[in-house]
Every structure is written in structure tokens, then in C-alpha cells.
Request: fold
Amino acid sequence: MQENKDATSTEKPMPENIDAYIAGFPEAVQERMNLIRKTIHEAAPGACEKISWRMPTFTIKKTLVHFAAFKNHIGFFPGPVAIEVFAEELSAYKTGKEIIQFPHKKPIPTELISRIVGFRVKEIS
Reply:
């Protein structure tokens, strides 16, 4: 399939679910997104999946985290408080108010993602 321009591109139809979203990217990016998806489910077994803001979204009562693929990275959106709490550990990554960028050229930090998701679960509860 052709690579999506970015996570929120409106030039492509809205994916029906996370499987359809992931299928729209090259195999190497699909593997990275599936690893993030698995990590989220392991850290938050009760999380539900949906597409929100044109991105894979995980919820427990309310939004837990989002992620999305871009040309050079996967954006992970755990919310501003999580980014602030984990700022020191995230210093190796480009971050913004609500995003952490995991470059395609670096391994996915599954252990860190797991701890961030665990923090979000506690924050929501």
C-alpha cells in the first residue's frame, strides 16, 4: 500500500480501525506500530482501541494515549503531564507539549512506553 502522508492527513479516507490504519504503511513501519500497540495492551490490558483524531487511540474511561506514523518518526501522545513527569528519560527524543517522537532509525523504547502507559492508567484512575 502507499505510505500515508502523515497521521492526520485528510487526503486518505478515515481508517475503520487500528488494523486498517497500520496496514496503510510500509512493512517496517507496521512492525514498529504493532510493537507499540502490543506494549500498550501489556501495560493497560483493559484498554479499548478506536480511531480518534485520525490516529490509533487507546482508552480506559477516557483517552489513555494515541500514536501515529509520520515520514521520519512515530508520534506518541501520552498527554502533557506524562511528558513532564518523564522529561529526563525522554531527553534523547524530540518532544513537544503533547508528543514524543520516536525516530524510525532508533529502536522503539518499549520499557519506557510501558511505564508511561502505566502512569497514564494511574492518572486516569
Notes: The beta strands are 48-52, 55-60, 62-69, 73-77, 94-95, 100-103.
